[in-house]
Amino acid sequence: MLKNDAFRALDRQESLSLLARAPVGRVVYTRQALPAVLPINFSLDADASVVLRTSPGSELVRAIDGVVVAFEADEFDASTRSGWSVVVTGQATLVTDPAEHERLSRTGPTSWMPLREAVFVRIESEIVTGRELNGARATA
Questions:
Q1: Which of 22, 27, 62, 74 is most open to solvent, judged by the fewest CB atoms within 10 Å of its CB?
Q2: Tens-place pLDDT, residues 30-54
Q3: Can you give the CATH number for the domain in which 122 is found?
Q4: Sequence-ordered list of residues with C-beta below 8 angstroms from that of 91, at least 6 positions apart, any chain
């Protein structure tokens, strides 16, 4: 049996700090009225929003522009039973302002997939939750 005293809820600032160092996360959205999850690289912008870079014609852009989505990133070590998970929930919007697009082209995430054109999607960090597990130990 495992004792669960190693679990700790993280505050917003701790959660965002951990999120900022994660290379990949998962966007959770609705596709054809069903839940969908897509791993994607991202960056955390200065205003704490999650920024994605993708193709303008992608299914992802069509599915999430203007709707509320969740974005999750985590890091775990199975051998020590430790790690963390952060979830950001908020409205996703396509970045249409040319100056903002130019800024994100310089400072935002780079796509791991080759893109002829790129668009940026911003997920507002309206709700940020995090949890940390510092190693559950077995009890007698």
A1: 62
A2: 998 999 999 999 999 999 999 999 9
A3: 2.30.110.10
A4: 66, 67, 68, 69, 123, 124, 126
